[in-house]
Design brief:
Length: 258
């Protein structure tokens, strides 16, 4: 988050819980991604056992931290930037945590104590490669879940000219990365029309049908003029059975085979 943190902190302190008013009076893409409650749609539907431990890798303005706290989780937010962590602590103070518990750690996965174990480890656009996966798996409890959300560099929105994001990764490469040398089970989900503001979460068992995606195009970060007909491209991808390869984003949940 970096250079935007100071301004986001000021806004959070000024508006407190009234984030709808914050967005109404301070419209910008940065603020929308940080404060919109639509961010929580990514995992609001996913069952997590109350009292379980979750490691969130990357502060990400605390966009989903509040959701995890309301689910009753013990949440550890890990980030290399102490300023970003301070913002998360300020945003989700004791009066807004629900039944969950929040702690923050400045550093990276390899800096965590060896005995640290979590039921869920969550990367939201922050998975950087094989080393992260290996370090995360070492810190999963038995039966734990590794949850990875990532953008697809071959997604339709990118072909339309939307800005590229860090750590984007193709579907097959992500699945191979998660399994690595240890065979596991990977459940495939697809947030649409984009990872940060999803309207729908499709799955490998329920892919989009014709007409669905062409009606919900979110063009917040599209260029003024797109280089393709986005609705037409969605229809063609779905018709040809290629949606998983050209989905705009992925939400993959990995667990060890029992």
């Amino acid at each position: 988050m970096g250079k935007n943190t100071a301004e986001l902190l000021k806004l959070s302190q000024r508006y407190g819980k009234d984030e709808k008013e914050l967005l109404k009076e301070n419209p910008s893409l940065v603020n929308l991604y940080a404060f919109s409650d639509q961010r929580e749609s990514l995992l609001e539907w996913y069952f997590m056992k109350s009292g379980a431990k979750l490691l969130q890798v990357g502060a990400d303005s605390g966009a989903l931290t509040g959701l995890f706290l309301r689910k009753g989780l013990t949440v550890t937010v890990l980030d290399r930037d102490e300023t970003d962590l301070e913002f998360v602590r300020t945003r989700w103070n004791a009066g807004r945590q629900g039944s969950g518990k929040l702690c923050t750690v400045c550093g990276d996965l390899n800096g965590l104590p060896e005995e640290s174990r979590f039921d869920y480890i969550f990367f939201d656009g922050t998975l950087e490669g094989k080393a992260d996966v290996q370090a995360a798996k070492k810190r999963l409890q038995d039966g734990g879940k590794l949850i990875v959300a990532a953008d697809n560099p071959y997604g339709v929105r990118y072909w339309a000219g939307a800005g590229k994001r860090d750590n984007a990764i193709a579907e097959r490469k992500l699945e191979k990365l998660l399994n690595g040398e240890e065979d596991g089970t990977v459940y495939h989900y697809y947030p649409e029309p984009e990872r940060l503001l999803p309207n729908f979460i499709y799955s490998e068992d329920r892919l989009p049908e014709r007409g669905e995606l062409s009606r919900i195009i979110t063009a917040y970060d599209y260029p003024k003029y797109t280089v393709i007909n986005v609705a037409e491209r969605y229809e063609k991808v779905i018709e040809d059975g290629l949606f998983p390869q050209f989905a705009d984003a992925f939400l993959f949940i990995w667990s060890r085979k029992q």
